[in-house]
Amino acid sequence: MADLLSTKPYKGTRDFYPPEMRSREWMFSVMSKTAESYGFERYDAPLLEPIDIYLAKTSEEIVKQQIYAFTDRGERRVAIRPEMTPTVARLVAARAKETPRPIRWYSIPNLWRYEQPGKGRLREHWQLNCDIFGAQNEFLADAEILQLAVSLLRSYGADSRHFRLFLSHRELLNAVFAKLLNLPNEKFAPVARIMDKKAKISVDEYRALLHAEGLDDRAVAVLDSFLQDGITFLDKNSHLAGAQYILSMIKFCRELGLADYIEYDPSVVRGFDYYTGLVFEVFDRHPNNRRSLFGGGRYDNLTSAFIKEKINAVGFGMGDVTLEDFLRVHGLYKEFPRKTEIYVALFDEEDIRLAALKLAGELRSYGFSVETALSSGKLGKQFEEAGKKEIPLVLVLGSDELAAGQVQVKDMRTGEQTRLPLNHLADKLRQLVAEKTNIPE
Amino acid sequence: MADLLSTKPYKGTRDFYPPEMRSREWMFSVMSKTAESYGFERYDAPLLEPIDIYLAKTSEEIVKQQIYAFTDRGERRVAIRPEMTPTVARLVAARAKETPRPIRWYSIPNLWRYEQPGKGRLREHWQLNCDIFGAQNEFLADAEILQLAVSLLRSYGADSRHFRLFLSHRELLNAVFAKLLNLPNEKFAPVARIMDKKAKISVDEYRALLHAEGLDDRAVAVLDSFLQDGITFLDKNSHLAGAQYILSMIKFCRELGLADYIEYDPSVVRGFDYYTGLVFEVFDRHPNNRRSLFGGGRYDNLTSAFIKEKINAVGFGMGDVTLEDFLRVHGLYKEFPRKTEIYVALFDEEDIRLAALKLAGELRSYGFSVETALSSGKLGKQFEEAGKKEIPLVLVLGSDELAAGQVQVKDMRTGEQTRLPLNHLADKLRQLVAEKTNIPE
Lengths: 441, 441
Prior knowledge:
The structure is a homodimer of 441-residue chains. Chain A is an alpha+beta fold and 441 residues long. The first copy, chain A, folds into three domains: 13-157 and 285-336, Bira Bifunctional Protein, Domain 2 (BirA Bifunctional Protein, domain 2, 2-Layer Sandwich); 163-261, no CATH class; 342-434, Rossmann fold (3-Layer(aba) Sandwich). Chain A contains 16 helices and 17 strands. Chain A has helices at 18-37, 52-55, 60-66, 85-94, 138-155, 170-180, 188-197, 203-212, 217-228, 231-236, 243-255, 320-329, 350-365, 379-388, 399-404, 425-435; strands spanning 41-42, 48-50, 68-71, 77-80, 103-107, 110-112, 124-133, 163-169, 262-264, 278-284, 292-298, 313-319, 342-344, 370-372, 393-396, 406-411, 417-421.
């Protein structure tokens, strides 16, 4: 006999049993409802894409080390999508002419990356993607995306105690390098890397590294001010690319009532190479979960990989794994009971059994979720099964009841048993089912 | 400059733009509601599985010619799931002890097969999978699966004019071969293949082929009777394995009120090697679409690939591509308008614009789906955009309206314009939105 196969899911992925699935459906439906309240429409696309669409703009780390790519039986080089943005750019490009703008689209695809699994990082995750394409006023589109990002987490019951959105502008750092420090282009990347390390090394070391790249004390002081003085630095240097944009956006968000949620942070950069303007990242504020939840930004050049027209775009992607961690750590994660409301017991006598099965069918047509016993004899066993499955009501239709035109109803939450007439049964059962929510756990 | 990339989806797959996505969501929600009305609970699992789980029981054609398999970066041999049954068997096996039985589970996964794309056949399709595991009374479980299969299509508005379910039993054909024809085992497959070809060849050719396999005239007559006489043949040969089962099931379905929907057909076999009892197939009755829509059956041995316990199982898988063709050919396919109900126009003056954006936010909190203009100036252009997007109501909040505590509402379906007070606006708008359904198209 062959060895038994493992029952575990593929490394770094999850099985969704019904209890987890109910929570996942809740998470997804909150995403849909919130996005749709802003007029976003849902789309979807195939799981596999030609690998070419990732080569241009997706981050090098993903394409070289994390993408699931292979050659199909027709010698096509394909990839399981590691992100949705190139796909949505392809879809928009394909119908660029006939789709009225601005285009507001969302999707909740599963994405695959070959990562070392860890907290908040799995090989398969689902991700809400919201994007606005072709807005005439890009500033307003950016503001709407920020507002939607905040609304989303608020829809789960989170507020400014739980999270904060930090934004910046892609051109700002380069402008600081070029205009204030007069750095040559080739120094941008090494200096950015040193700045990234700042929190992890000593002040002396930090300064020494910058000096080694040719920065004098004045330049180091400018960088310090850029990183520490926030809005004040921008006020003083509002001629820099991106500075005026950030000042206006922060003011606009404040006027929209988002002052508690949105701040400027010069250290926000985002990994993808395709961002061209606004970049933002949403952080968990919980002491045990201080990390980036999700982010996004403006990427104006993606459609031009497919068509000549550049269509401006802004959006974000929010993953379900980090979202679930966030909701759990703040006590906002929800679990739901089974949906089955009624269990119909069955007797062995064929005519009585048929009457019970027909009753079950009738109750389904009234909108109830009804299970019937798939066993014979022993009523006790059937009650036991309904109890294990936490089904609130059990219906018994025996020969006595059938003769009297009645059905026996046992409320499994209270143990109470009553007889109800078969006429107008649905109304009475609806009341009994509704009482469910009034019973303390 | 690099060549432009194709905007087409990968061969044999579909992009789902918002209009198609709305129909897909409707199709899926009918699946969910119907399955849940029978107490089925939804599950999901990763897209990739170790290829081993398909090698044992999935049909050879799929594994050898159609599966999308590759080696991951950790040297694991994996496959994109071509079907869901081995996966659900894995999930059931993993929690065999703690899950109360019978287990009724459903899922709507996307599946991949490398096929030559054609009518009803694509490389990526979604499939509703419904399965019952561990029923004490397997006959009742089989009957419920048949009933659910019929209920599903009826939930889309189809009835016995549109489709028919044909059932048989896996053991019956073998019993005919072994008990009535005394055929040796190695002749089963070649004779079955000749029977399969019967409709496509002449009677003489058919007989000659059977004779060549050693069947005499009496044997050919028995086979003819088996294929043509339906229930009468079973009545005469009720000692054959499967015969009594089929007679009882047909009678039971009739008593459940399914006589118009369910018939016995000896030619139903099903491709998968894992079926052990009931097999069935649902056929479209439309003259332009006479073909199998979906099918299923009993497969009792699948969990034993993972654990020692054999858990009895019965189920089916219904694909979205064939379902959509079926619904279209019978005029049952539905299309839905965009969900956005309100378009809020925007002026350039910052304080007025902010008031309009806040109004939009407030209406969203009342449950409306609200788009705001992402453009400046020109009210005419904004009306035009709302018209193209078929949004029924446009709200204009200018300085006059703001001063008067009012908002201008234009009903885009009638052209009617009214002014409404900002107080209690939501109630009035709800009425206006509801009127939508009363306007003939």
